[in-house]
Amino acid sequence: MAETFDAELQDRLMRYAAVETQSDEDSPSAPSTEVQFDLLRMLQAELARIGAAEVELTDYGVVLATIPGTAPGPTIGLLAHVDTAPQFTARGVKPRVIQGWNGDDITFPDAPELVLSPAEYPYLAEKAGQDIITASGTTLLGADDKAGIAIIMTAARHLIENPEIPHGPIRIAFTPDEEIGRGVGADLPRDLRADFAYTFDGGAVGEIEYETFSADAAEVRIEGVSIHPGYATGKLVNAVHLAAKIVQTLPQATMTPETTAGRAGFVHATEMFGGAAQMTLRFILRDFERDGLEAKGKLLRDVCAAVQAGEPRAKIACEIRPQYRNMRYWLEADMTPVTLAVEAARAIGIEPISNPIRGGTDGSRLTEFGAPCPNLFTGMQNIHGPLEWISVQDMARATDLALMLVRRAVT
User: Fold this and answer.
1) Is the pLDDT confidence value at 1 over 80?
2) Domain 214-324: which CATH class?
3) 83 an active-site residue?
4) pLDDT at 411 > cutoff 90
5) Exposed end of the chain (fewer CB within 10 Å): N or C?
C-alpha cells in the first residue's frame, strides 16, 4: 500500500513546504502572522476540490472539514499545524528530493559546508534507497508539520474516492501557531466535534505518544537606574548586569536543555534584550509533572527576588503564564484512542514506540480541553534547523496508519 501514496505525498510536501508560514511569538494577532493564511486558504480550496464536506476557515485561523462516515463509529479528528518554528530562518524554503538516496553523506546546494551524515544520525542510515526530502541548506524544511498536513490530505483524498472503506465521521483541522503554543484556543474542541483526535506531528516510524512536557513561559523585566556613565559613580544601576546575574545564578549544569534528557525538565533562557536602563529576559519552563513545573517557577522567582534584594534601587518583575499541560493527566483515565492507534500500527506491521515527548503538541491543549488527542509519527527528523529531513516512505507508512485506525474504529 505504501508505494501507492509516495508520489502524492512527495508532491504535497514539496508544495506546502515552499509556502512561508513562520509564526511570531511577539505578534498579538491570530494567527500571529498573515502569511499563514496563504497555506490555510490553499488547504481550504484543496479540501473543497477533493470533495470534503463542511469546509471552512474559522475566524481564529483554523481550517475545518468533514469526511462523512460510511459506517457507524466514533467521530475522529485528524490534526496538523501549518506554521513553522520561529527559531530558524523559514523564508524562501526550497525543498528538494533525493530520489533513491544512496546512503552517502547529504550535502546542500545553498550551504556547501553543511553535511547530513548517516554516521551521525543512525535513523537516517536506515533509509538508504528511500526518497529523502530536505531544504537547500539556508532554511528549515518545514516538515514540522507540513508532513502531517500532506499525510492527512492524502488519507482524506483516498477515503473520499473510496467510499467502500468503512469508517466513522472524520473531522480535519489544520491549525496555526502551534510552534508558539497558541494553536488550540477554547473554541476548537467545540468546533472540532470529535470524540477523540490525533495530531500527526511526531518523528520516527512507530511513535505513538501520549505524554508530553507540562509547560510555562516566563518573562522577567528589569528596570535599572539610568544616568550618564561619566557621572554614574554610586548612582547607575545597570540592568544588563542584573540580567546576567539572574541567568548565571540559575543552575547551569543540571537544569538547562543541553544538560538534561529523559524525564528531567529544564529552565531555558530563550531571549535577552534591552540595555543598561531596562532589560527583558524570557524563559520557558518544562517538566513532566505539575509539582516539578511549579518548583521551577518558584526557583526563577526566588532567584529574581534574591537579585532584587541585592539591589533595591532596581525594579525586577517576574511573570509566569501557563502554556500547556502533560496530556497524560487526562489520557490515562481513558486510553481508548491510544489503544486504537497501537492496534492499528501493529495491524500494518509497525511496532509502536511510546516515549515521553520532550515538548508539546496541539494535542496537549486539545486533550486538556476535553478532546483526547495522542500524537502520531510522520517521519520528520532534525526539525527546527537546516538539517531537517524526512523520508517519503515514512510519510507513506503514516498514511497507512491513518487509514487503518479509522477503519479499526468501526470494527
Assistant:
1) no
2) alpha beta
3) yes
4) no
5) C
